[in-house]
Amino acid sequence: VSDQKPLGCWSVKHGQIITCPVVCNFETHEYIAVHDDKVLRIWKDEDVNLDKVFKATLSADVYRIHSLPQGEPLVLFRGGGVRTLDVLLEAPQQEIENVISDEVIKWSEAFLEGQQPVLIFVTEKDADFFVYVQKLKMNSLHKYKLEQQELSNPLSFTAFMKKQIITLLCLYSNDSVYKVLIPLQQNSKEEEQTLSRSLLLNLSISGSVLKGTSLVVLDKDHVAVLGSLAASGEESKECLTIWNTKFQTLQTSKELPLGTSGQLWCYGENFFFTHGKVLTVVIYKCETSSLAAAVGKLKDSQTSDISSFVNWNTLGDEELAVSCQSQQSVAEQSESKMTLRSRRNTVAEVQPDNFTVGQFLLNIKDTSAAAVEDELRQLLSRAQMPDFQGTIGCVITALINRCKTDPTFYPRNFLVQLIQKRELSYSLCPDLMAVALEKKDVHLLQVCLQRFPDIPEEITYACLKVFLSISDDYLERTDVNLESVICYIDIEPNNKEVKTEVVENGFNTELEEDGCDVTGKKETQMMEDVEFCPVGPRKAALLNAVLHSAYSETFLLPHLKDLPAQQAVLFLRYLHYLYVKCSEKINITLPGILCPTINQIMDWMCLLLDAHFTVMVMLPEAKGLLSNMHKFVRAQVRFYSELNKIEGSLRELQRLKHYKDSQAYSIEVLELI
């Protein structure tokens, strides 16, 4: 999610429907899905086709599969029966009992009590709601009835377990959240009990009412509610809100103008919800709530300058510094808070010794570049600094904000040093590469491409376009790291590469040419195309950084189609040059540091041809290049085909070598058939 890279995609056949959420078995690292209610599928990352993976047809309809971090997945059937996955796979057609009668399951969740799995699910029948709690190892099942609420019904449920008590939170249609306590230690002989509930939270905000659709528990004092905020006489607006249940206050909220599906998920201190057509991820962190923090949020957010909650959007310099200082004050008073930050607008949480960080962030706005670098070196020299990576991201964001407002301020060398020496990512400082692109700082872009693991494809394409369009004269005046090219490109005064290496893998272009359609002049021209690098060493090093960057073909291909035709041809010539250079070596690797691999080169060649094949065919200057590439690949295929023919004989020779006495002199003639 942080890199926005799809890692895998699997599809069922046309007409089949996935009928419950897919889960991961943490013990076996397998995925588990159910389609058409009864058909179970299990597969791993390396599997491609779902038709060829494990399949089991069950005897009853599945409602939900629950995966536990340290336990066997649990399968809940629509009739209320529960099985562990291992027991179910021993006999997929085993009969599943019906626990509920004429009831419909509305929600379910699984927990671990010690080593014992516990499953809770809620059902509905004729506007009455029932709660079932089942302990699998003890084979005990308890049924409860939820206390009825006049003129309102539960819309969403969530629960957590602590000290053998399940706390069930219910979001009702009367815009309130109720709490229900369910003890796990019950007398098995007791009949159905009615669970009483208590009001936990009233979702009203300054006369407006939040019509919630989904809620999740963040910790014992905070919940998140997704819904529509409706004020009298105004159009309702969808928003995500965070509430303090201990002090009955709204802590923060974010309007979602593009709309949502009404579903909210929470996993590993991350919110997941759909916003428009995209999946949005919001990182949060909860600490013990305090009265000061709760009351502070009751102030008007437009007039309050001090807030213990970080804004959803990127903070300005003053807000960022105030946030850092307020955190120290909160720590001194044994108070705490919750911070929220989006993945793309990451703002770091700084804890001890953060007064100095706050002062530094305030000083950035009007201090000279040299003074800023001196103060920052002192800050980074500390031996102990919690959340060091987040602090650096926070500092870089402040520096970039200063660069945007002051064109004369640009601590380029220091930014390069920070990125080279620290394990940073694009998401920690998303505006850094945008500013570098604007200033055409190719060295900083090169370092970012080599160091950042999560660069969006749009930024990777923008870097490629800048590198291809920039002149060699401009590059001669810039600082570029040549470690990735210096070992295989020899420079003449006219900046052309001199070929000095010997062909080792048996490839000879002249032997592979068709004499009837290629003249001697064309043969010479083709060898020259392969012999000389089409770009200078600095541009080659920058292009290598692009090849080194991670990408997803799905997201990169649409951007590559916008690459101008002349730049596409130049890039393809360079890729062809690299491909030939790799093929000259037996180990098909280029010498040097951070050199592109043969797989990276071939993948980019295929991407570029997919994006521009029609244009390449129509351009006269590209036809010769395509022809040369075709002939070279054909020669490689023929060469490896010949190797495959003698593979068996070579293996036999290797086997015979172990049985011969190497000390005795002999001459043997082996006939290869």
UniProtKB/TrEMBL annotation:
Protein location: Nucleus, Nucleolus
Gene Ontology terms describing biological process: maturation of SSU-rRNA
Alphabetized Pfam families for the sequence: Nol11_C, NOL11_N
Q: Name the InterPro entries for this protein.
A: NOL11, Nol11_C, NOL11_N
The signal sequence is none
The Nucleolar protein 11 C-terminal domain is annotated at: 359-672
A single GO CC term, please?
nucleolus
Extract the GO molecular function terms from the UniProt entry.
RNA binding
Which segments constitute the Nucleolar protein 11 N-terminal domain? 1-285
Q: According to the lineage, what is the superkingdom? A: Eukaryota
Q: Which UniProt keywords apply?
A: Activator, Nucleus, rRNA processing, Transcription, Transcription regulation
Protein name, entry field: NOL11 protein
Q: Which organism is it from?
A: Alectura lathami
Gene encoding it? Nol11
